[in-house]
């Protein structure tokens, strides 16, 4: 029996939405830089395709990204390389226990010659900000950074300064060494659109890394392939990507299943989930899904776009109970089961 599900073009037309074919042509013309970005970053970073797609998704969806992985997996290199390919200002903040909020956002400095206070802006005033090992700084510093992430502005003294656009915080944390660290509270982790867990490279990729570093050793020449203005324009176009009502319902069902799994035929997950994803996850799934459609040069979202970003959007928004921790069950297992059980439109 043939499927009666309408195509995105037919569904859009019936809802009075813009012409999907025309929108797709506009997006295809505007999204060519995505493939160029991947190519340029690939000159310096071997493998780690998922990490790069996560970074680009966050960039296009106007959301911040948290990268978790042991040292040496090219997290910092990937972010630095991406900033060179986008031709933006880049700053790196090494988070340490003695860091102060003023070291991040800036402070007022007294000028003896002029006999007045002047503003000294901190490293937060850059397009791309790498917050390296964010869980090593105390709560006040983390809060200062996360406030800037949310408000897209910084107040120093009596003045408020807007942050440059595009503005993207890419934070890293080491999951192994937890002594002397300050784990981010759930409410603050929720402000990151995506959390990607970086794994080790394959044997072939690691051999290529060895060959590049030992034999060549020279820094890869990365060319700027897109401007900040083009990224800002692309973000506006991402919001125009068409999302059918069935996709919206699919997103809502996925998020609802993290809160009350028993209502979706997964009652056995109830004792394992302390709290589910917030409405930020619903918005995040939609925006990240639209960004993935844009990266695929499409003017409409398909279920595979949502499934591709669901893990990175949801994994840091689900709280586990003591029972789940005792059974060594991780958030990834819960998200995987929800994706398997919720019907795909």
What does this structure look like?
This protein is α/β, with parallel strands linked by helices. The protein folds into two domains: 184 residues, P-loop containing nucleotide triphosphate hydrolases (Rossmann fold, 3-Layer(aba) Sandwich), CATH 3.40.50; 105 residues, Magnesium chelatase subunit I, C-Terminal domain (Helicase, Ruva Protein, domain 3), CATH 1.10.8.80. The protein contains 15 helices and eleven strands. Helix 13 runs antiparallel to helix 15. The protein is globular. The chain starts with 7 loop residues before the first helix and ends with a helix.
Strand content: 5-15%
* Rounded mean pLDDT score: 85
What general outline do the C-alpha atoms trace? globular
CATH class identity of the largest domain = Alpha Beta
Report the C-alpha radius of gyration, rounded. 22 Å
What's the CATH topology label of the largest domain?
Rossmann fold
| Count of all domains | 2
CATH arch. level architecture of the largest domain: 3-Layer(aba) Sandwich
CATH homologous superfamily label of the largest domain: P-loop containing nucleotide triphosphate hydrolases
Instruction: Tell me the total number of β-strands.
Output: 11
Task: Please give the largest β-sheet.
Answer: 5 strands, parallel
Question: What pattern of helices and strands is seen along the backbone?
Answer: HHHHEHEHEEEHEEEHEHHHEHHEHH
Helix content: 40-55%
| Strand order in the largest sheet | 2-5-8-1-9
Q: Between the first and last Cα atoms, what is the distance in angstroms?
A: 17 Å
Any low-confidence stretches, pLDDT <50, length ≥5? 1-5
